[in-house]
Design brief:
With about 350 residues, the chain is an all-alpha fold. It has 16 helices and no strands. Keywords: Cyclin.
C-alpha cells in the first residue's frame, strides 16, 4: 500500500507580501522643463550671462550639426544629439563641464540611439578638423598620442555623465514625420518647397529651447505657420487649421518668435566665448580653493578644542582629524559659520564634551 501524501490546507499557506518598489516613468510628457528650470539654469547660477549661455548653446548645436554632416549621420541622429545637448545643460553648468567634450559625447550617444553607430575615434577626428577649419589653420591629422587618449577617455566619461543626468531618458520625438503628415492632411503634400522650408525651420529650431518648452506637435505647427507666412500660402482659418491638431495660436506664436530671434543674433565668436568661460572657471576654482582652505583652517582650529575627542577618533582608526571634520561638515551640508557658532557655545561651557560626529 502506497503512502498517502498529507493534504495541505490552503488557509495555512501564508501569502507572500509584495514589496513596494519605486518606478521609473519614461514617456514623452516628462521631457518638458518647467519655467523655473529654464530661467535659473546652473550656468547662470555660476555667474554666466544669459546671452553668453545662449551663444554657447547655439555654438554647441552647430558643432553637432556640422559633425553629423561630415560623419554622414542621418538628420534624425543630428537632431537627437542637439536635443540631448540642450537637456544636459539645463542640469549642469557650462563652467564646470566642457562644451566641446559634451558635444562629442552627444554625437556618440545619438548615433547609438538612432542605430547609426560611429566610432569615438571618428567623432574626435571630425571635431578636431572642425576646430582647424574655424580657426583657419592648416589641416593636419590628429596625432594619436597621450592627449588623444586622454580626450577619448573624457568623451567616454562625458557620455556616461549625460546618461546619468538625463536618467537614461534619451528618447526624443522629432517633428519631421509630423510635418509631412500635417501637410498631407492640409492638402500640400505635393508642394515640395513648402515641406522643405518647414523642415528647415524645424532644424533651425533645434538651436533654441523650444523643444524643452513645447511638444513636437506644437513645433511642427509653428514651422508650417512660418513657412506659410513666408511663401504667402493661405491656410484654413474658420475653423483654424491648427485646432485640428490640438494646438493653440499663442503657443505657435511663441515658438515662431523664438525661432526668428535666432536669425537676429550676431555670429558666434568661439574665441571670445572660450575666454569668458575660462574667466568663470578661474573664479569657480578660486572660490572652491577658498572654501577648501576655510574648511581646513576650521578643522585645524577645532582639533585643539576640548570638545573634540582626538584620541578617541585616532583609536577608532581616524588618522587625519582635519579630514574627518571636513567630511562631517560636508556630510551634514552645514555651513562653517553655523558650526563655529555652536562650537563657541560649547567651548564656553567647559563641562560639556561633544564628539565630532554631532557637528
Amino acid at each position: 500500500m502506497g503512502s498517502q501524501k498529507p493534504e495541505v490546507n490552503s488557509s495555512s499557506v501564508t501569502k507572500s507580501i509584495s514589496k513596494p518598489y519605486g518606478k521609473i516613468e519614461l514617456s514623452l510628457n516628462n521631457v518638458l522643463l518647467p519655467d523655473d528650470k529654464l530661467v535659473n539654469t546652473p550656468s547662470r547660477l555660476d555667474g554666466m550671462e544669459p546671452d553668453t549661455e545662449t551663444d554657447l548653446r547655439v555654438l554647441g548645436c552647430e558643432l553637432i550639426q556640422t559633425a553629423g554632416i561630415l560623419l554622414k549621420l542621418p538628420q534624425v541622429a543630428m537632431a537627437t544629439g542637439q536635443v540631448l545637448f540642450q537637456r544636459f545643460y539645463y542640469s549642469k553648468s557650462f563652467v564646470r563641464h566642457s562644451m566641446d567634450t559634451t558635444a562629442m559625447a552627444c554625437v556618440c550617444l545619438a548615433s547609438k540611439i538612432e542605430e547609426a553607430l560611429r566610432r569615438i575615434r571618428d567623432v574626435v577626428n571630425v571635431f578636431h578638423h572642425i576646430r582647424q577649419v574655424n580657426a583657419q589653420k592648416p589641416i593636419t591629422p590628429m596625432v594619436l598620442d597621450q592627449h588623444y587618449i586622454a580626450l577619448k577617455t573624457q568623451v567616454i566619461k562625458a557620455e556616461r555623465r549625460v546618461l546619468k543626468e538625463l536618467g537614461f531618458c534619451v528618447h526624443v520625438k522629432h517633428p519631421h514625420k509630423l510635418i509631412v503628415m500635417y501637410l498631407q492632411v492640409l492638402g500640400f503634400e505635393r508642394n515640395k518647397n513648402f515641406m522643405q522650408l518647414s523642415w528647415n525651420y524645424m532644424n533651425d529650431a533645434l538651436r533654441s529651447d523650444v523643444f524643452m518648452r513645447y511638444d513636437p506637435e506644437t513645433v511642427a505647427c509653428a514651422c508650417i505657420y512660418l513657412s506659410a507666412r513666408y511663401m504667402g500660402i493661405c491656410l484654413p482659418k474658420q475653423p483654424a487649421w491648427y485646432e485640428l491638431f490640438k494646438v493653440s495660436e499663442t503657443q505657435i506664436l511663441d515658438v515662431c518668435r523664438r525661432i526668428l530671434l535666432l536669425y537676429k543674433r550676431a555670429k558666434v565668436n568661439a574665441d571670445e566665448l572660450e575666454k569668458k568661460v575660462e574667466e568663470l572657471k578661474k573664479l569657480y576654482q578660486e572660490s572652491k580653493l577658498k572654501s577648501r582652505g576655510a574648511l581646513i583652517n576650521f578643522a585645524q582650529s577645532y582639533r585643539s578644542c576640548s570638545f573634540v575627542d582626538a584620541p578617541g577618533l585616532q583609536k577608532g582608526g581616524v588618522k587625519n582629524i582635519e579630514e574627518e571634520v571636513i567630511r562631517k561638515v560636508l556630510l551634514h551640508h552645514d555651513t562653517i559659520e553655523n558650526i563655529q557658532e555652536r562650537g563657541r557655545n560649547i567651548v564656553q561651557d567647559q563641562e560639556v564634551r561633544v564628539p565630532v560626529q554631532e557637528f
